[in-house]
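task queued by scheduler; priority normal; single chain, no ligands, no partner chains; default sampling; output format set to structure tokens
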Amino acid sequence: MPRSPMVVRTVPALRRALDGLRARKADIALVPTMGALHDGHVSLVRLAKRRAQKVVVSIFVNPTQFAPTEDFGSYPRTWKSDVARLAAEKVDLIWNPDVKAMYPEGFATRIVPEGPAIAGLEDRFRPHFFGGVATVVGKLFTQCRPDVAIFGEKDFQQLRVVTQMARDLDLGVKVIGSRTVRERDGLAMSSRNVYLAPEQRQAAPELYRAMKLSAARLRAGEPVDAVMVAGAEAITKAGFTLDYFEVRHAETLAPIALLEDGPMRMLLAAKIGTTRLIDNIAV
């Protein structure tokens, strides 16, 4: 049975543990998570192990990125299985603060990102979200002082926001995106997939199929507007309510109309029942 990683829950204990990891001048990779780990998270850990000698995984369900109407209270929490997964991957350290450790009494400082954080995608429907993400990730970066940090490409706008923040604030960490891990039928792995009823789970792969077909049509030179309208119709026909389905510049997330205007990313968010799923692919 693999040895469990060291678990720390206070900032002083974290600093002592990190000093121990750095004693031999080892590079450190951080994988920020909210727990409920699946194979997509494991892929992040494995990439981290390729990029640094020591790996720290944070598990913290961050309340500041949830609106009052969202699922903070019911968000999946699977501590025992999470630790077992990380032990199997031989992670060096788990940083597992509680809310009081991360946001102590009197906490009054927030990071308010702009640029890709106000691109009119997730921010249009969750205006609170990226402020919460930037603040907690900024804290994680200053607490852990990693050389590299690994984020999944499934949350593509988040990846762009965090990359911009690290660069703008000179945080000394290289942010690396890791490809989206999918189920065999194409559904992007997500902790929220457990919310899907059986019939919803059967319909869910239509998101990926619609994106792949739309991207192929764009690469073939078809007009962007017509392609995106047809893709949106296929998604709604499968039982989804779309929040957005758009192609954007892959770096800036600015609107883009022509393939030759730069690298393109297709992004969507859609609800089926009460479950909201996001996904994206390169064009």
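post-processing summary
- The CA atoms of residues 168 and 260 lie 28 Å apart.
- The longest strand covers residues 241-249.
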